[in-house]
Design goal:
Elements (H helix, E strand, L loop, with lengths): L1 E8 L2 E7 L2 H9 L20 H9 L2 H6 L1 H15 L3 E3 L7 H4 L4 E4 L3 E4 L6 H6 L5 H4 L1 H14 L4 E7 L1 H10 L7 H9 L1 H24 L4 E5 L8 H7 L1 H11 L5 E4 L7 H6 L4 E3 L6 H8 L4 E6 L8 H15 L5 E5 L9 H13 L4
This protein binds coproporphyrinogen III.
Coproporphyrinogen III (CP3) binds next to β5.
């Protein structure tokens, strides 16, 4: 705790205990009391900021990601502008694929594109399981630089794509609505599927351990396309692998599971072992907490499209989320999915002010 806020009441100075952003984030992640709910936004380091667009006008995406000074510059933009409690490293879930020997490109307006999608057992055998020091040294360098530049302002957040979501890109080759080839492999070729998931979990666990050693205070596992699955399929084909990753990270740093459209999987996701579960807007936060139980924290859950509405609408929705959390330990305020590019950054500043302004008693 640091005592930094001083205010005048009836002529006498009183001091209010305030936490740094890093302390606030880590206390909530450990389900301990906080002075105010911590807040950050998924995809805050790119997308909606004019200063990010100016940086991207000078350098392409991969140059920013591969140059630690530029990646840290992009990471710090939302910290300076919004005063959020978490600084998510500017990187992408696709970066570790390079070290695995998988060629990909991030095409503007399209997203990730894999040169030669993984479809056969020979393709899977060729995937290299490497440590991040070899595969993505620039990500670790960026985290070290970020951790030293950030101080206590915010928690330094590392992340990775979860094995299922990475498999969706590897097998289908690019963004899709249904990932039909991936699901066909999962249903039709179980031996290949488990061999692929095994390798992807191994690389992902090494990658996240490396990020924590380089200075990440917490890590988030993005399983963006999990909403395509029913509970039985998830339990048999995906949960054992994310569970192995969370088990491997226990005691090293807090872990956050991300997915969207997964009400049908929520209790199984909680059982897979993350410290916090990111939930989207499809379920009110208190109902999600009833399903997850009190031993799991919750991150969420404002609908990012709501930020397009006038401020009073956003204000009511944000207060509703805080009321449903009811100052229970373990809540980190966030959106239910990433910021949309057309979002007015001032809306995000106002949300941070509102969330931090509601002090916990
Ligand atoms: O934005 C940030 O806060 C920076 C970190 C970050 C990026 N990607 C940078 C990025 C994070 C956390 C991600 C995660 C990511 N990447 C996910 C999981 C989150 C989610 O939204 O579900 C996924 C599925 C990807 C894959 C990916 N990378 C896509 C679909 C795209 C294209 C469209 C887009 O912007 O999301 C990318 C490219 C990408 N990753 C960009 C950025 C800033 C845009 C590149 C550019 O500036 O041209």
């Amino acid at each position: 705790m640091t005592t930094s806020d001083r205010s005048q009441t009836n002529g006498c100075a009183i001091s209010i205990q305030t936490m740094s952003g890093q302390e606030r984030f880590l206390a909530a992640a450990a389900r301990q009391p906080v002075d105010a709910t911590p807040v950050w936004f998924m995809r805050q380091a790119g997308r909606c900021l004019p200063e990010y667009r100016a940086l991207r006008a000078r350098h392409d995406f991969m140059t920013v990601a591969r140059t630690p000074e530029l990646a840290v510059e992009a990471t710090l933009m939302p910290i300076d502008r919004f005063g959020v409690d978490g600084a998510v490293l500017f990187a992408d879930i696709m970066l570790p694929l390079e070290g695995m020997g998988v060629d990909f490109d991030i095409k503007p307006g399209v997203g990730p594109v894999i040169a030669k999608p993984i479809r056969s057992s020979a393709d899977i055998e060729r995937i290299r399981v490497v440590d991040p020091e070899e595969g993505t040294p620039y990500v670790l360098d960026a985290l070290r630089l970020l951790r030293s530049g950030l101080g206590e302002r915010a928690a330094c957040l590392g992340f990775a794509g979860a094995p299922f979501t990475l498999a969706c890109y590897l097998v289908d080759g690019r963004s899709s609505r249904e990932y039909p080839r991936t699901k066909a492999l999962m249903y039709g070729e179980p031996l290949l599927w488990h061999a692929l998931m095994d390798k992807l979990s191994d690389v992902t666990l090494r990658y996240l351990k490396g990020q924590i050693a380089a200075g990440a205070d917490a890590v988030q596992l993005f399983d963006s396309w999990l909403g395509l699955l029913d509970a039985e399929t998830y339990a048999a084909n995906v949960a054992p692998y994310t569970g192995r990753i969370f088990d491997g990270l226990r005691g090293l740093a807090p872990t956050i599971h991300f997915s969207t459209g997964t009400v049908q999987l929520l209790s199984l996701i909680g059982q897979s072992g993350p410290d916090l579960v990111s939930v989207d807007w499809r379920l009110p936060l208190d109902e999600a907490w009833t399903i997850l139980g009190p031993d799991t924290g919750i991150q969420g859950n404002l609908d990012p499209t709501l930020l397009m509405a006038p401020w009073p609408v956003v204000q009511v929705a944000s207060i509703d989320i805080l009321d449903r959390a009811g100052q229970r330990p373990g809540h980190i305020f966030n959106l239910g999915h990433g910021i949309l590019p057309e979002t007015d950054p001032d809306q995000l500043s106002r949300v941070v002010e509102l969330v931090h302004g509601r002090r916990h008693s």
